[in-house]
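Holo prediction. Input below; ligand is iron/sulfur cluster.
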Amino acid sequence: MHTVNLSDVAVADRELAQTIAQRANVNLRDCYQCGKCAAGCPMADDMDLSPQQIMRALQMGLTEKALSATGPWLCAQCMVCSTRCPQNIDITKIMREVRRESHARGHRCIPESNAFETQFLKGVKADGRNNEQYLAAFYNLRSGHLAQDMLSAPKMLAKGMVGIGKHSVKDRDAVRKIYEKCLEKDGEQK
Ligand code: SF4
Ligand code: SF4
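Structure of the complex:
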């Protein structure tokens, strides 16, 4: 077991952990490490740090450990952890805020996840919805997985599951306003 000397933990790291928790409206002290969040998480097996471990890292002020973990980048925001937590901790929000901070600090713990999210949001902003064929094509370019799903494309085209043309929602401006409002609320760049 790895031993941590808590007196060596930098004050700035502790403060950042508190800031992240505040953004998620969570009191880190509420977590008593029961593990119910991690036990129900559908992604936990693939994460290096589970939601429970992310909470522990923040509690201890090991913020960099949380920020460089793949866990928050694999989180599907399904909210199972939050609904299972006996302390009503919104751990889904914690995962989101850790990921946001990680992103802001230039970490790209799962580059594919970042590539997909960036392209998905671009599609929503431009057309009010996503066009799967463009999402897949630009994702492949951004992620470097150039040939991913290429063999499925002809079959999907033949079955009409995807098309060549682009579709937009009727009121793109309304969706764009909602999109920008969300970014404004999150304090992010448009
Ligand atoms: S379920 Fe809640 S109390 Fe239990 S480890 Fe997870 S966050 Fe902590
Ligand atoms: S919201 Fe994220 S951390 Fe929580 S259960 Fe779902 S995938 Fe796991």
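The longest helix spans residues 111-127. That is the main takeaway for now.
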